[in-house]
């Protein structure tokens, strides 16, 4: 469904959530007199949460936490908790151990209950039960209805934690689930320290809008009796809070105030745990704390991953094979366990993970350590010191400092990786980055089944991609790569966990009619400022987005560009040139920086238009935020390789399969011509029909203040009647420019005065100058210079056979210049044969049509008018409107079709 939103609402999505939730917390803080309140964290875990809900954790034999009970209790007390409870999964062992030691504790557990009709497991926080009741509860939890009816009959208060977060996704979950929850629960956790603010605000607004009439109508609809669950529809729901802490970092910093009248006197005769239970049953609860969105969970997962790296044991191949789960689950667990077990052999890496864990717990690394490590890693120690110091500065400072340190560590380590690779290449006698060829890269795609063969060669045979000593390079890279993977993995996992049910959150917000996520796309590209046709078309798209204030922002990686409206710029970690293909730079962006821009910018979908590093980033964003992703194909790389390399069919098929795997990862692929769409949906690429969208570039309005160039000013001896061909493109082999000498030579036999003007630059420029000595070469021309050339010269010639569109054809049409091109792909979708240009099959046909055009002046005038008419059919508004609608976006109401092409 397409949703129209006010631009201001989109930009204020997350700030508005913060304001709304802060107001709620402020109101809650004023409900009860503080002297009559007990402070409790209703939701926290220790080492007895030893069987995780996540499948991979069970396969790998990983507990949810290694946190000792004693440490958790101390942390809770240090953070002001006056009542202690521990809500481990499906057991209260820690609570019973504390009671055995004479410590007052509110017995509790977080039971995993099965919802049969949704094939769904949900959590239920349960309090105040006995050991005998715990056994029965564990039996009843196989059916959530039986569990909750038993709890109600035994007067055991329960809380529905994180109501919008589930540990799985399936198509059976719908809004009817929440109708049943409204009938079955009195208490809902609206503040969870490890969950997303959006989920918290949605839960809050949903619960507060549960009127008695709604609850009763839900009960009738689903044949449920509220009394069976101790629910009184006419009594307001109870809102609670808890930290959901597993690592001993945030416990007690989120929770609830429990109101007990005349508390001081009551405490003299009644244990705090009993008073807490009384307040729960009475509904005298007020949540407190902060929701840190993904930042807190990111810190918790980093701490958890650091401990996993040092504590994981071999789960056993046979056990993995026999465990419940899909084949991919088992393969993933096998790979991860082997990676981590190999990592444990690397002492430097293990020490670093230990330091990370200690820093997150507030313990600084040894002062001498900074001088013992190499200067490349002193930065890492400095960041860990900052993290440890920030524990003393409060929750907000610690959260901000740690997340900033994670980002800075990631950037520093990736720069170090790039420097070491560049240094290894420079010191070797092998290939250089700027000499990479498509053939070399493609032929090395085949990966040996034995890693030793890949890295070290087989025996004395050295058939690697270079003479670089791979084993030495890997030794230098293993530490920064492994740490970077853990940092990126914790960031990805923390956000992915929160947004794994994004579709449900969107539906829920739509149902509520508020708190709907902003609908905006982030457009990643490597080529916006390059000198080629793609950059020209992208620049036109950006200008239209800026002009109409459309819900799309571009992001580029560039060392010198400045950000503007609708344009983000990130600086590259490193960059290198591929000289063989012209002035083309490969820039490696900072992944964490782009992820942060996506998050803070309120984007909910991503599009990428280049298959290089930005494609990897787009897929990372897709997985991290669970958002729709799209790819815009500007280049047919299989055809490109066919025209620029000597690879055989088998080797080209490798590229095709690689491209197929890449494009299949996206929710949609945009193509620029019908032939390309047929190819992508055909047997070779096998994309689904509904995933491939046909689009086009749009024209940009002609600058009416510019005038045509005089032919005599650029061509010696020419006058206004001199017949002149014009070509503007990147001067490279695949553009077909090496056909030009024969085309011109053939045409000159009938039109001796024919001249040709060439605008552009590229790797084949010098070769073309040698074989076409009479041509006028102008080099790269800006837009104003090109306009004058289009207006002043006669016929555009386009000999490329691989272009997916041919943006220069549209540029020529905008200025009334017809085009002759080969009858292939992009050109045949734009040019109407014998109306605004010619479509030909070969060099002879192109020469013949050039002769026909110049020998018939009446044809020239008619084609010029038809070219202008055709250009008017490629206006920005309808093309951009369809483009955004195909991504599920809608343009602003004010966007209209009033612009015309001059």
Automatic annotation (TrEMBL):
Domain Glycosyl transferase family: 716-867
GO molecular-function term, one example from the UniProt record: glycosyltransferase activity
Entry-linked InterPro entries: Glyco_trans_1, Glycosyltransferase_grp1, Pol/histidinol_Pase-like
Gene3D superfamilies: Glycogen Phosphorylase B (3.40.50.2000), Metal-dependent hydrolases (3.20.20.140)
One Pfam family named in its UniProt record: Glycos_transf_1
Protein name: Glycosyl transferase family 1 domain-containing protein
């Amino acid at each position: 469904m397409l949703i129209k939103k006010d631009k201001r609402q989109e930009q204020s999505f997350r700030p508005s959530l913060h304001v709304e939730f802060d107001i709620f917390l402020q109101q809650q803080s004023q409900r009860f007199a503080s002297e009559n309140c007990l402070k409790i964290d209703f939701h926290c875990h220790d080492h007895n949460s030893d069987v995780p809900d996540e499948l991979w954790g069970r396969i790998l034999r990983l507990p949810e936490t290694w946190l000792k009970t004693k440490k958790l209790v101390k942390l809770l007390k240090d953070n002001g908790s006056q009542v202690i409870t521990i809500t481990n999964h499906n057991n209260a062992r820690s609570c019973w151990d504390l009671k055995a030691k004479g410590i007052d504790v509110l017995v509790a557990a977080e039971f995993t209950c099965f919802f049969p009709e949704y094939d769904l497991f949900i959590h239920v926080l349960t309090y105040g039960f006995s050991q005998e009741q715990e056994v029965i509860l564990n039996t009843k939890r196989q059916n959530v209805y039986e569990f909750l009816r038993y709890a109600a009959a035994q007067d055991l208060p329960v809380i529905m934690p994180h109501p919008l977060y589930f540990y799985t996704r399936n198509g059976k979950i719908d809004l009817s689930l929440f109708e049943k929850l409204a009938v079955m629960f009195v208490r809902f956790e609206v503040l969870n320290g490890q969950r997303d603010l959006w989920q918290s605000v949605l839960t809050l607004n949903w619960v507060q809008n549960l009127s008695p009439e709604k609850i009763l109508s839900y009960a009738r609809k689903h044949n449920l009796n509220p009394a069976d669950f101790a629910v009184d529809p006419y009594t307001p729901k109870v809102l609670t809070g808890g930290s959901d802490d597993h690592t001993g970092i945030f416990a007690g910093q989120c929770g609830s105030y429990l109101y007990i009248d005349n508390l001081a006197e009551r405490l003299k005769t009644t244990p705090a745990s009993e008073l807490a239970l009384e307040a729960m049953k009475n509904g005298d609860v007020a949540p407190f704390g902060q929701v840190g969105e993904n930042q807190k969970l990111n810190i918790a997962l980093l701490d958890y991953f650091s401990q996993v790296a040092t504590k994981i044991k071999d789960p056993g191949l046979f056990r993995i094979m026999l465990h419940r789960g899909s084949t991919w689950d088992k393969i993933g667990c096998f790979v991860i366990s082997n990676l981590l077990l190999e990592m444990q052999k690397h002492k430097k890496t293990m020490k670093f993970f230990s330091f990370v864990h200690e820093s997150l717990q507030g313990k600084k690394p040894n002062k001498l350590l900074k001088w013992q490590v190499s200067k490349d890693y002193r930065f890492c120690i400095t960041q860990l010191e900052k993290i440890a110091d920030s524990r003393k500065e409060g929750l907000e400072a610690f959260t901000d400092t740690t997340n900033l340190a994670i980002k800075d560590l990631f950037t520093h380590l990736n720069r170090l990786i790039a420097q070491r690779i560049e240094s290894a290449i420079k010191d070797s006698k092998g290939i250089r980055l700027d000499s990479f060829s498509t053939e070399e890269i493609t032929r090395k795609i085949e990966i040996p089944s034995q890693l030793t063969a890949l890295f070290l060669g087989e025996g004395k045979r050295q058939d690697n991609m270079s003479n670089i000593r791979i084993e030495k390079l890997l030794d230098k890279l293993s530490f920064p790569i492994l740490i970077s993977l853990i940092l990126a993995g914790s960031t990805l996992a923390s956000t992915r966990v929160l947004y794994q049910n994004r579709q449900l959150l969107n539906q829920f917000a739509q149902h509520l009619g508020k708190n709907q996520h902003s609908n905006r796309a982030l457009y990643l590209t490597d080529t916006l400022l390059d000198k080629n046709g793609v950059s020209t078309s992208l620049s036109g798209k950006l200008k239209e987005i800026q002009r109409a204030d459309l819900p799309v922002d571009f992001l580029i990686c560039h060392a010198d560009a400045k950000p503007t409206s609708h344009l983000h710029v990130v600086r590259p970690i490193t960059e290198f040139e591929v000289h063989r293909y012209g002035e083309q730079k490969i820039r490696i962006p900072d992944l964490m920086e782009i992820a942060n821009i996506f998050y803070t910018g309120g984007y909910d979908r991503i599009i990428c238009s280049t298959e290089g590093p930005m494609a990897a980033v787009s897929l990372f964003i897709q997985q991290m935020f669970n958002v729709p992703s799209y790819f815009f194909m500007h280049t047919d790389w299989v055809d490109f390789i066919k025209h620029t390399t000597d690879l055989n069919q088998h080797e080209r098929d490798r590229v095709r399969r690689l491209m197929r795997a890449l494009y299949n990862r996206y929710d949609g692929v945009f193509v620029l011509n019908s032939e390309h769409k047929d190819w992508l949906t055909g047997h070779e690429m096998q994309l689904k029909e509904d995933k491939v969208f046909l689009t086009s570039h749009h024209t940009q309005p002609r600058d009416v203040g510019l005038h045509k160039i005089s032919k005599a000013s650029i061509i010696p001896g020419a006058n206004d009647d001199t017949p002149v061909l014009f070509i503007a493109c990147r001067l490279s082999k695949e553009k077909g420019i090496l056909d030009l000498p024969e085309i011109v030579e053939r045409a000159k036999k009938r039109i001796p005065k024919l001249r040709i003007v060439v605008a552009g630059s590229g790797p084949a420029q010098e070769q073309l100058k040698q074989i076409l000595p009479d041509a006028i070469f102008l080099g790269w021309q800006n837009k104003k210079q090109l306009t004058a050339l289009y207006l002043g010269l006669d016929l555009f010639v386009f000999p490329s056979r691989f272009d997916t569109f041919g943006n220069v054809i549209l540029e020529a049409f905008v200025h009334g210049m017809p085009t002759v091109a080969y009858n292939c792909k992009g050109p045949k979708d734009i040019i109407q044969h014998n109306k605004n240009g010619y479509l030909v099959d070969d060099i002879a046909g192109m020469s013949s049509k050039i002769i026909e055009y110049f020998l018939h002046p009446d044809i020239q005038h008619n084609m010029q008018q038809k070219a202008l008419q055709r250009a008017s059919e490629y206006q920005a508004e309808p093309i951009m409107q369809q483009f955004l609608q195909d991504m599920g976006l809608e343009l602003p109401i004010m966007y209209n079709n009033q612009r015309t092409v001059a």
